[in-house]
Amino acid sequence: MSTDMLIIRSTSQPLETVCQRLPEIAASHKFGVQAVHNLREKMESKGVPFGRECRVIEVCNPRHAQVVLSQAIEISTALPCRIAVYEEGGKTILATIKPSMLLTMFNAAGAAATAHEVEETMVRIMDETCRR
After folding, report:
1. How far is CA 47 from CA 39, 54, 89, in A?
2. Looking at the predicted structure, is the pLDDT value of residue 1 above 70?
3. Which range (1-5, 13-17, 68-72) has the least confidence?
4. Per the confidence metrics, is the pTM higher than 0.90?
5. What are the pLDDT digits (tens) for 46-67?
């Protein structure tokens, strides 16, 4: 899988531990959790068997969101930022689409600095979550 568009981190911590730590660490960087989607539970509740654990945690910093939405309201289709947490090869993986890459889909050059700032913060959140 190409990582040109993704930020990927891994840890030996259990998925549940990562999912508990991530909101606290995001909050320390002024990002709030908007929603947590448990894909296995959601799919199975719809009658679709899905044996893997995968959580998608949506995080957002309202100040950053306001800046980019002021540039182009259609960026709302890519908000909030999503961090997927799943297990692969005995590790817990955290993955997100790079905000700077998402921004290339929109004609909002004035939002580039904010996208890079958000991207740097997402890396810090993911790195800190992966540390014990």
Report:
1. 12, 17, 27
2. no
3. 1-5
4. yes
5. 999 998 999 999 999 999 999 9
The answer to whether 95 touches 7, Cβ cutoff 8 Å, is yes
Q: Rounded CA gap, 127 and 123, in Å?
A: 6
All domains in the chain, ordered by first residue: 6-130 (3.30.310.70)
C-alpha distances in angstroms, 58 versus 81, 122, 128?
Answer: 6, 11, 17
| 2-99-111 Cα angle (round to 5) | 140
